[in-house]
Write a structure and sequence with these properties.
Chain lengths: 303, 252
């Protein structure tokens, strides 16, 4: 039995007549990377800001580390680390000064110089925030979020605006935080990021959670068929229809596509070999979270 | 406590790293010192028959110098502090601080301390230049003047923090701060002699919060007395501003 460190139940938040969060519920378990995936404006940021006590929800119950963010917000913010969207540091603040200052806010953490070393910022210690590259800024902001070894870390759109190399590097940072024992909540609108990093995730659209689960289970449940492609000169491959998990076989010249579910790849492979077909271009096309999202919401993530 | 000291130290350094702000904050009172001081000299006007007595009968430079110390306090509190706070709010720096459990009281205290520190630097600079280059005579009571400075700097800085709390944007804070600074300069006794101001401006002057600060600074300098009434007004401005700033303060 894994304890849940964050529990959000039927959260609702409006700004005037605009409903930012209609109905959001999710549980985050200790030590996992939990993702909130959805397009911009889906209500992800508002949800995590409510969970940190930075915004007051209109309705719903939230518990983070056993605390109520509404009434124990400042106490809670001592225990969580946070990288917020649309936040910045003073442009002329130096890297070491930022770490020194933020480390002093919650006493009892490790020496900030160690943190600076661990996040590979020592070479930039005297550089001002405004002179850092996008990737370096993210690295500093993550370092500040974890400088006091918080048990829960919220990361909101970490990689927006970063080039591919910096994104990859940021992903490694996120995994490093988890390996350090923290529980992470990752807000993102990047499907590949969620699929790569999250142990479990909630798909959020128009202020509602439309599905929750591990990326693999969501894909298995909502992603539709697995597609297997190969080429062969053999005119007749109808023996594949007899495999139980195959739904359809289609053919265009030598190119064969088999749609199926579950163990279909292994079964099709075995059946092909048994019939003397050993294609060199056998490949499987899996559904992605993008497909899951499209099926569940009727529109793409990019909208 | 450590975090308050660190925040104060960092904020003080950040202020000194902004060349434009530093120049503006320190140079404005100096500019006034040499322009106005140069115009009026330090010849006391005892008011011969039919003449108006101006500067309360004191030498203009003696009258203006403590008033300019008030301007130095005001330039930090009204031009520096409000724009700084509003910019922090606009850029999401305050958001960032709050998410890392920076306490409101700690943050506002650090801003107050930094403003008082910078005011002190500005005032020392002003006096250090005024003594060798003008005919100003030293204060009648240096101790009372110092006490008036400490009270005035703390209370008027709190007023500046209140401005930074209620003004909506950095741009608004910057323009409003500058405008108020010049208005207050003219009507608070640091500009034209108060005796020659038309009645309406004198009325504004009576209610301008900088006026009691300047009078409180002038009294011990010119007569060696403590301006009890003005100091109560200054204290009231400080307490009300600090309280209002604390309750109205918004992180975003």
């Amino acid at each position: 039995m894994v304890a849940s460190v964050i529990s959000v139940d039927r959260l609702r938040k409006t700004y005037g007549t605009f409903v930012a969060v209609e109905d959001v519920s999710f549980e985050v378990e200790e030590g996992e990377i939990f993702g909130l995936l959805g397009p911009n404006g889906a209500g992800k940021t508002t949800s995590v800001e409510c969970a940190q006590g930075l915004r007051v929800p209109d309705a719903g119950d939230i518990s983070v580390l056993g605390l109520d963010p509404r009434t124990q917000g400042s106490q809670l913010r001592q225990l969580v680390g946070s990288q917020l969207q649309e936040s910045a540091l003073p442009g002329r603040l130096k890297v070491w000064e930022a770490l020194d200052l933020f480390a002093s806010l919650v006493p009892g953490g490790p020496d900030w110089r160690e943190v600076m070393e661990r996040w590979d910022l020592t070479g930039k210690a005297s550089a001002s925030f405004s002179s850092l590259s996008g990737g370096q800024r993210q690295r500093l902001l993550v370092a500040l979020a974890v400088v006091n070894e918080p048990r829960v870390v919220f990361l909101d759109e970490m990689t927006t605006g970063l080039d591919p190399a910096a994104r990859r590097a940021t992903w490694q940072l996120i995994e490093a935080i988890r390996d350090g024992g923290a529980t992470l909540v990752l807000v993102t609108h990047f499907m590949d990021e969620a699929e790569q990093l999250c142990d479990r995730l909630a798909i959020v659209d128009e202020g509602r959670v439309v599905a929750t689960g591990s990326p693999q289970s969501l894909i298995a449940e909502h992603g539709g068929d697995l597609l297997i492609h190969f080429s062969t000169d053999r005119p007749d491959v109808s023996f594949l229809d007899a495999i139980e998990s195959v739904h359809a076989v289609s053919r265009h010249g030598p190119h064969v596509t088999v749609a199926g579910h579950g163990p279909v790849l292994a079964l099709v492979g075995a059946e092909l070999v048994r019939n003397g077909i050993v294609p060199t271009d056998l490949r499987v096309q899996q559904s992605t979270l993008e497909d899951v999202f499209l099926r569940l919401t009727g529109h793409g993530l990019a909208e | 406590m450590t975090s308050l000291l660190k925040m104060t130290w960092v904020e003080a350094k950040l202020f000194l790293r902004e060349p434009v702000t530093v120049l503006f904050t320190f140079a404005l009172p100096l500019m006034i010192l040499y322009v106005l001081g140069g115009v009026f000299g330090n010849e006391a006007n005892p008011g011969s028959e039919g003449d108006m007595v101006v500067y309360g009968g004191y030498g203009p430079t003696n009258w203006y110098t403590p008033a300019y110390v008030g301007l130095a306090i005001a330039s930090v509190a009204m031009i520096g502090v409000p724009a700084h706070l509003a910019e922090y709010r606009e850029r999401g720096v305050l958001r960032r601080f709050r998410a890392s459990s920076v306490a409101r009281s700690m943050f506002l205290s650090s801003q107050l301390i930094v403003a008082v520190l910078i005011s002190t630097i500005g005032s020392v600079l002003l006096l250090a230049l005024a003594f060798p280059t003008t005919e100003v005579e030293g204060p009648e009571s240096a101790a009372l003047f110092l006490a008036a400075f400490v009270l005035g700097a703390i209370c008027f800085s709190a007023f500046g923090i209140l401005l930074g709390t209620v003004l909506p944007s950095a741009r608004a804070a910057q323009s409003a701060g500058l405008l108020l600074w010049f208005l207050f300069m003219f009507v608070s006794g640091a500009g034209p002699p108060p005796e020659v101001l038309p009645g309406s401006l004198n009325t504004i002057g009576q209610y301008a919060p900088l006026t009691p600060v300047i009078r409180m600074l002038q009294e011990p300098w010119l007569s060696g007395e403590w301006a009890a009434g003005y100091s109560v007004a200054v204290l009231a401005i400080g307490v009300v501003s600090a309280g209002a700033a604390y309750f109205l303060f918004k992180w975003e």
